[in-house]
Amino acid sequence: MSEFPDSASPEPDREPSRTPLPRTRGKALRQRLAELRGPDVPPKALDARALAALAANPGCERRALLDGAGVDKAKLADALGSPSAFGQSQFAFTRGNAFEARVKADGGAELLRLVHETLDPRAEPPAAGVVPDLTAAGPEGRAARTALALREATGSAAWTLLDHPMLALDVAGSPAFLEPDAVVVHPDGGWTVVEIKSFPMLDGSADPAKVGAAARQSAVYVLALERVAALIDPAPEVRHRVLLVCPKDFSNLPTASAVDVRKQRAVTRRQLARLTRVEDIADALPEGTCFAPDRPAPDLTAAVEAVPAAYAPECLAACELAFHCRDRSRGEGAVTALGRSLRAELGGLTTVGDVLAAAHGEAGDPRDPAVAALRRAAALRAEALRPRTVPHQGQEALPEVAPCR
Questions:
Q1: Helical ranges in 23-125 per DSSP H
Q2: Out of 10-14, 236-240, 381-385, least confident range
Q3: Which CA distances in Å does 23 have to 282, 291, 295, 358, 373?
Q4: Which of 185, 219, 290, 391 is the S-S candidate for 265 at Cβ 3.0 to 4.6 Å?
Q5: What are the angstrom distances between the C-alpha of 351 and each of 97, 134, 339?
Q6: How many other β-carbons are positioned within 10 Å of the β-carbon of residue 1?
Q7: 43-72 pLDDT, tens per residue?
Q8: What is the strand order of the sheet 182-185 is part of?
Q9: Quick one: which of 87, 84, 54, 86 has its CA closest to 327?
Q10: pLDDT over 90, % of the chain
């Protein structure tokens, strides 16, 4: 007799069940995401920029699924025939590294001075900060070494600068390793994220779009630091005001500004919680959906189009699939291709055809404020383009002006 009769063969007096098992419910999330990515395709690790971009467009299920599955969106865009121009130029990369090295020179004396002056003026001025060695083998080792250095610095009551620490954040069941520019530990034990950017700060202010992107990126680091702080008793304070360091005016001298990232942190936390449920998005996909870049272009296009997207012009600066999504959005006549603010103003009018029909009085409820505004704008345009009337008898006509040659 078999030692395991229940698992060796079905019972003799009953036919085996032919009802298919659910496709994904019985599978682990990591296995399901590997199937979507491709059997031999390694996952692309998420970084803070990618997580920040997710927080900037939380309604895009396409990006949430692809990033959660670790799909390389740049290779996917190339395979779809819409290569991405997203990325940082080599010149900007070199300039940023040179500016960061200047800020952190002399043991980070200038950086610690900016932190003290901007965020903690009541503390003792940093005479000589401590810069611990964070080298270790692999990202897991560096993350563990960073956690130990943070714990030791919290109880030292001295200014401590952690240069390029390694933090870990759980994303869709897998660890994402993040590397902020710096983390400063204050004498009172509080932790501050420092983000160093090479765009200028003119007269104390910088480009709002670039500052917003830096704030979303810093919020990811704050969330990762909070995970580390939760393991310490008592837990140190992870400050919600981060330090943004930029060149002053048109020079290479550093200046700093405090940025409150509580709103960005809350949005990012919600988006990460949504990423842990990407299996629910995957359940709605057709059987055999796969995003491996070596698949035929028609199959890849069908796979990508099976996941709803929320394209907006801002995606061009944040997502590798932006050109593909823009072409599809324009082809469908979606008003989101013209910007989120316009989309919000138009209410239930979701396509350009609906907008034009409402403006010309062919469709739409006249009590709808958006429809009423469109019809008023159409009337004003028609009035402005109306041909000039012939002058009455006795009224002198304006002389014609000869065209320039």
A1: 29-37, 48-56, 61-68, 73-80, 90-103, 105-119
A2: 10-14
A3: 10, 17, 21, 44, 49
A4: 219
A5: 44, 53, 12
A6: 4
A7: 887 788 888 887 778 778 898 889 888 899
A8: 160-163, 182-185, 191-196, 241-247, 254-260
A9: 84
A10: 38
**Pair of tokens at residue 259:** 């940025």
Phi then psi dihedrals of residue 196, to 5 deg: -110, 120
**What is the Cα 168 distance to its own chain's centre?**
17
Torsional sign, CA 256, 131, 230, 47: positive
pLDDT in tens, 273-304: 776 567 788 888 888 889 998 899 899 999 99
- Strand locations in 116-263 (E): 160-163, 167-171, 174-178, 182-185, 191-196, 241-247, 254-260
For residues 100, 106, 108, 112, the Cα torsion angle rounded to the nearest 10 degrees is -130
- The three-state DSSP-derived secondary structure of 200-230 is CEECCECCHHHHHHHHHHHHHHHHHHHHHHC
DSSP 148: H
Higher pLDDT, 352 or 27: 352
**366 torsion bin: left (phi>0), alpha (psi -120 to 50), beta (else):** alpha
Give residue 31's pLDDT band: very low, low, confident or very high (50, 70, 90).
Answer: confident
Structure tokens at 322: 């932006």
CA dist., res. 319 & res. 82, Å (int): 12
What gap in Å lies between CA 80 and CA 324, rounded to an integer? 8
Q: Tokens representing 377? A: 């704008």
Q: Which two tokens stand for residue 194?
A: 């420092």
Residue 268 amino acid letter: T
Q: What is the mean pLDDT of residues 33-44?
A: 85
Among 111, 125, 247, 76, residue whose Cα is nearest residue 182: 111
For the packed helices 61-68 and 73-80, what is the interaxial angle rounded to 10 degrees?
120
Confidence at residue 284, expressed as pLDDT on a 0 to 100 scale? 84
